[in-house]
Amino acid sequence: MTDRLYLRHSTDKQTNARQRLALKTLIEAGAPMYEDPATSSRILSIHRKGFQQLLDEAAVGDTIRIADAARLFRSVADVLALRPVLTRRGLHLRVQSGLLSGIDLAADDSGTTMVVNVLASVLQFQRELISENTVEGVAAAAAAGKTLGRPSALSKDQAADVVTAYREGAAVKALARQYGTSPKTIRRVLDDAGLREVPDDLSALLDGDGHDESDGHDQAVDADPVVVVEVPGLVAEHLAEVADDAVREALRNGKTIRRGQGYLVRATAPVSVHVAMIEHSATALMQSPAGRKAHRIHSDRVTAARITP
Q1: In total, how many domains does the chain have?
Q2: Which of 78, 108, 124 is the last residue in one of the domains?
Q3: Domain limits at 259?
Q4: What Rg, from alpha-carbon coordinates, does the chain have?
Q5: How far apart are CA 176 and CA 162, in angstroms?
Q6: 218-239 pLDDT tens trace
Q7: How far apart are CA 229 and CA 294, in angstroms?
Q8: Torsion angle of the four alpha carbons 229, 248, 294, 107, in this order, in degrees rounded to the nearest 10
Q9: Which end of the chain is more exposed for a tag (fewer CB within 10 A), N or C?
Q10: CB-based contact 67:18 (threshold 8 Å)
Q11: The overall pTM is greater than 0.85
């Protein structure tokens, strides 16, 4: 049985120093350590590179140890996606110190489930409160006439050249290499010019937004694969009115399948869109037993689709 340490911080301006201090004894004992630096808690834990490596290397009976719960999960959706994975793999999850240190957060009993769900709800509330305060701060700064955001990676002349080159058939990734920036920056320039109609969730998967690229460079690893997930009818009904075009489009284009008195929607979309569905539906569906069951089933299906080669 091995203790495996997991550490995460949200931005490149933060460090894992406090977490390392809390886990100092285990680190000094040589426990394997897995990190996700500068990684937002909005990315479900099972989709983070460092945590995926931990899952790949862990054996039945191993214990995942974290400095505090927020380093691993900070939303109900994350907990609902994470716990079934840990249970199926026979893994334990413990916070190193504090009130929760005596509880295996991966235990599949009703008491632990209640504690973890309440904890996740509190952490999610904290995160949303931080987001609200940030939005208010940005609005206040904008009202005061302050310039917001980082400087543009491309000058106006360079942006104009990018638009011209794209119209002439240049690929997004080739343009990104030419100007020493990221494909995302190039896509943003093209979006501002009204040249693209591909949603961002899909465009990240495309090689040059449909332009052929023949310069001999290796293709990027598909980080957001398109997968098929059967969305329970109760979840689909809740998501029908959410303010997320990609989610609504995926459900609208999905195939409705009747099963007994219920139904499901077989939706084909990038993993990021399926994860967005989980996030959008978490709070509302947790209000009833049927909703919690539908949400758990949906989360398990997204998880299975994500980790299946």
Answers
A1: 3
A2: 124
A3: 226-307
A4: 22
A5: 9
A6: 444 445 788 899 999 888 888 8
A7: 13
A8: 70
A9: C
A10: yes
A11: no
